[in-house]
């Protein structure tokens, strides 16, 4: 635990594009210090630090994970390595008594999810999983809009994660493989599955999915559509693809019995939503509401804020995620996106992939 002269020590595994933002966020938290970096090649790690403009003169660099696990000045391990390494590294960190920041996907199959869950439960360490879009103001507002009753009971929820990822991506050599990337839902679209669960407040109870292989270079299908039954007789849909010719697109739609949110536009049919009352109740200082109209001239309310519209990790809200993890370690309480919570999202992804492999056969949830 930190004292007046000791901060929580952080070790970062995998010194790449995403890890650079983990490091930047830890450096901005007054309770933490990055003490170790673990990478396959020390020279490459130093080159990446320079490339991403990160200065860590006091951090030690190792190519051996055991050095990190045995280090007394490591309290938190940040795992930003290729996907197929996550489970083993997370289990080892938990068994060594280290708290965890774990990049998605947490595990690539049910067995890995169970191993992570059991290791963390036995160790009693704090964990957070990088579904960091939960800290985006639009997703937070959408969740609040639903939970505060402005939409009424949700009847249909739809999310989309569409991002054209090819060899420009720094992790292309491993994400394209079946061993590590595995599927578009596991490699990327799990953000959309998580957003559907979190914003709608409803758990999927079954999923039926179809996939296809469009983009060259991948060893796995690059587009998937998943239809879901949700709690309370609602329906859900997720589209996840790297096969479309358009910029990064992340869509959230919540259709309720009173009103419907379609991305940044709130609409209704009968009783209108009172803009003044909604604005007065809005708890998000970084979300502004404005009178608007759709393309047909029908009245609506526009949500004006930072949207989840970039694949660049430098624009993702890692700071809020890491600040929450540090606060929960210091206060000995669970985070809002622990491995136990994230497991539900990962189970939906695995079930959808299984259904698609079986030609759309419905798969019941939960898997575990």
Rg to the nearest angstrom?
A: 21 Å
Strand order of the largest sheet: 14-15-13-12-11-7-10-9-8-16
Termini separation: 34 Å
3D shape: globular
Give a short account of the largest sheet.
Answer: 10 strands, mixed
The CATH superfamily name of the largest domain is: Dihydrodipicolinate Reductase, domain 2
Task: State the CATH architecture of the largest domain.
Answer: 2-Layer Sandwich
Give start-end ranges of low-pLDDT stretches: none
Give the SSE layout.
Layout: E1 8-13, H1 17-28, E2 32-38, H2 42-51, E3 60-62, H3 65-70, E4 76-79, H4 86-95, E5 99-102, H5 110-123, E6 127-129, H6 137-147, E7 154-162, H7 172-175, H8 184-200, E8 204-212, E9 223-230, E10 235-241, E11 249-256, E12 260-262, E13 265-267, H9 275-281, E14 288-293, E15 299-304, H10 318-331, H11 339-357, E16 363-364
Parallel strand pairs: 1-2, 1-4, 2-3, 4-5, 5-6, 7-10
Antiparallel strand pairs: 7-11, 8-9, 8-16, 9-10, 11-12, 12-13, 13-15, 14-15
Helix pairs in contact: 1-10, 4-5, 5-11, 6-8, 8-11
């Amino acid at each position: 635990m930190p004292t007046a002269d000791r901060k929580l020590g952080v070790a970062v595994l995998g010194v790449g594009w995403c890890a650079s933002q983990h490091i930047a966020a830890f450096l901005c938290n007054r309770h933490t210090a990055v003490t170790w970096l673990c990478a396959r090649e020390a020279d490459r790690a130093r080159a990446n630090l320079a490339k991403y403009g990160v200065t860590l003169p006091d951090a030690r660099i190792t190519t051996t994970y055991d050095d990190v696990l045995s280090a007394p000045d490591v309290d938190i391990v940040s795992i930003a390595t290729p996907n197929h390494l996550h489970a083993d590294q997370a289990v080892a960190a938990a068994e060594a008594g280290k708290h965890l920041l774990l990049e998605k996907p947490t595990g690539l199959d049910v067995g890995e999810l169970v191993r992570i869950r059991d290791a963390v439960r036995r160790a009693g360490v704090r964990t957070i999983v990088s579904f960091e879009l939960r800290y985006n103001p639009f997703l937070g507002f959408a969740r609040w809009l639903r939970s505060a009753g402005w939409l009424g009971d949700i009847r249909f929820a739809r999310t989309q994660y569409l991002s054209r990822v090819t060899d420009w991506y720094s992790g292309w050599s491993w994400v394209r493989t079946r061993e590590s990337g595995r599927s578009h839902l596991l490699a990327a679209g799990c953000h959309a599955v998580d957003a559907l669960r979190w914003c709608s407040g409803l758990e999927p109870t079954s999923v039926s999915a179809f996939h296809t292989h469009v983009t060259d270079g991948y060893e796995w299908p690059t587009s998937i559509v998943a239809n879901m039954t949700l709690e309370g007789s609602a329906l859900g849909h997720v589209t996840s693809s790297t096969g479309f010719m358009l910029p990064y697109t992340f869509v959230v739609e919540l259709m309720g019995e009173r009103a419907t949110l379609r991305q940044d536009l709130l609409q209704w049919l009968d009783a209108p939503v009172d803009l003044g009352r909604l604005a007065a109740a809005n708890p998000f200082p970084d979300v502004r509401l404005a009178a608007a109209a759709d393309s047909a001239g029908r009245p609506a309310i526009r949500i004006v804020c930072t949207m989840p519209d970039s694949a660049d990790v430098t624009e993702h809200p890692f700071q809020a995620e890491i600040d929450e993890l540090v606060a929960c370690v210091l206060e000995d309480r669970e985070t809002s996106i622990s491995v136990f919570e994230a497991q539900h999202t990962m189970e939906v992804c695995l079930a959808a992939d299984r259904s698609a492999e079986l030609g759309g056969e419905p798969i019941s949830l939960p898997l575990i």
